[in-house]
């Protein structure tokens, strides 16, 4: 009896069907600078056509984490691709970089072309919104490495910024305003704690709970906000001194990454309302306030530091771009040995 690759759990024909299903979505993301089409051994992008005088490449990589488990349990695969792109491009946007191209890695026990193509469709859609080309990726069937039905995804974004316009926090100074841009929920952080609360409290992902407009599962799958287009808009009209993507570690871990020595971020907790979905999980899991803000974004997905006299106009611009924003604090002098972030 002859043994085939399919007998070992890898279906080459399914891989071919998968590529056919995603091809048009990938092609729709192509932008100026892309060379060639998918199918080669590498993706090509021509930098000399972009007109940037002192080009600096900025790269970022990330995944979606255990939020994937919620998607798998819900049988919904159209949102996690957006999460994947957002987590990468939001990071590189913190330096003022605009994404040029994206690559994805998809690994699973057994490829399900129709279902899994929804993931790549989400990736392509998010790339399109950011002006970012999806120029390649890798799909791997790995039986025995993953349980049946499970999969994992990772993403890699490369962007560009003019050396003279890099935003690195070095110009952050006392008196600057701190603007908080609203999140769209938990984004893609803290889901191990989310899932523990859901399990321990015996919550039903398919049920609607008071204060939550959708089912719990749908609320937890709300995709991460794409801040990259907003940053591109703001950098043209405002002097952005520092940008922090509020991911794992919350305010305490992420804001200090853009603060120079001698200054601190003074945050007013009453300047915005923590969305009910966070409070709901906090109550069900008996999560202390400090832990809540240390793990989750609590309604603020990005923090932008800029001159105080530009704060009002900047928030108007954010509103016009479809983002809710709040002046949540200011930059103050940091005493020797004092905390970098002070929450009032």
State the gist of this model.
This protein has 344 residues and is an alpha+beta fold. The chain has eleven helices and twelve strands.
Number of domains: 2
Spatial order of the strands forming the largest sheet: 8-10-7-11-9-12
User: CATH superfamily membership of the largest domain, which one?
Assistant: PurM-like C-terminal domain
State the low-pLDDT regions, or none: none
What is the fold named in CATH at topology level of the largest domain?
Phosphoribosyl-aminoimidazole Synthetase, Chain A, domain 2
Strand content: 15-25%
Average pLDDT reading: 92
Overall outline = globular
Account of the protein in words:
- The protein is built from 11 helices and 12 strands.
- With 344 residues, it is α+β, with helices and mostly antiparallel strands.
- The protein has 2 domains: 12-165, PurM-like, N-terminal domain (60s Ribosomal Protein L30, Chain: A, 2-Layer Sandwich), CATH 3.30.1330.10; 177-343, Phosphoribosyl-aminoimidazole Synthetase, Chain A, domain 2 (Alpha-Beta Complex), CATH 3.90.650.
- Helix 1 (12-27) packs parallel to helix 4.
- The radius of gyration is 21 Å and the shape is globular.
- The mean pLDDT is 92.
Question: Layout of helices and strands, plus pairs?
Answer:
Layout lengths: L11 H16 L6 E2 L8 E2 L9 E9 L3 H8 L5 H14 L4 E11 L4 H17 L3 E9 L9 E12 L14 E6 L8 H10 L15 H5 L7 H10 L4 E4 L4 H5 L8 E5 L8 H10 L3 H7 L4 E7 L4 H10 L4 E9 L7 E3 L1
Helix pairs in contact: 1-4, 3-4
List keywords for this structure.
alpha+beta; globular; single chain; 60s Ribosomal Protein L30, Chain: A; 11 helices; 344 residues; Phosphoribosyl-aminoimidazole Synthetase, Chain A, domain 2; 2 domains; 4-stranded mixed β-sheet; 6-stranded mixed β-sheet
């Amino acid at each position: 009896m002859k043994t085939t690759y399919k007998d070992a759990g890898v279906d080459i024909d399914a891989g071919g069907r998968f590529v056919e299903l995603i091809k048009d979505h990938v092609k729709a993301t192509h932008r100026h600078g892309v060379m060639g089409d998918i199918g080669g051994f590498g993706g090509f992008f021509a930098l000399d056509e972009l007109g940037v005088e002192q080009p600096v490449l900025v790269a970022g990589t990330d995944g979606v984490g255990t939020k994937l488990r919620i998607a798998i349990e819900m049988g919904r695969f159209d949102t996690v691709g957006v999460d994947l792109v957002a987590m990468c491009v939001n990071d590189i946007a913190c330096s003022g970089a605009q994404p040029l191209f994206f690559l994805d890695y998809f690994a699973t026990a057994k490829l399900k072309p129709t279902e899994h193509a929804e993931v790549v469709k989400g990736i392509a859609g998010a790339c399109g919104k950011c002006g970012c080309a999806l120029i390649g990726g890798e799909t791997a069937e790995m039986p025995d490495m993953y349980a049946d039905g499970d999969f994992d995804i990772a993403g890699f974004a490369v962007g560009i910024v003019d050396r003279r316009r890099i935003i690195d926090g070095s110009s952050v100074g006392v008196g600057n305003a701190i603007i908080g841009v609203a999140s769209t929920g938990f984004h893609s952080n803290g889901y191990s704690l989310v899932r523990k609360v859901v399990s321990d409290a015996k919550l039903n992902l398919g049920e609607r709970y008071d204060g939550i407009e959708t089912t719990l599962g749908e609320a937890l799958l709300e995709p991460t906000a794409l801040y990259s287009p907003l940053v591109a808009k703001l950098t043209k009209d405002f002097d952005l001194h520092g940008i922090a993507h509020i991911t794992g570690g919350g305010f305490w871990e992420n804001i200090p990454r853009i603060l120079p020595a001698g200054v601190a971020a003074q945050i007013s907790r009453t300047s915005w309302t923590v969305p009910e979905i966070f409070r709901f999980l906090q109550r069900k899991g008996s999560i202390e306030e400090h832990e809540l803000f240390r793990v989750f974004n609590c309604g603020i997905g990005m923090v932008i530091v800029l001159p105080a006299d530009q704060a009002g106009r900047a928030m108007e611009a954010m509103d016009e771009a479809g983002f809710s924003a709040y002046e949540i604090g200011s930059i103050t002098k940091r005493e020797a040995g004092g905390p970098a972030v002070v929450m009032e």
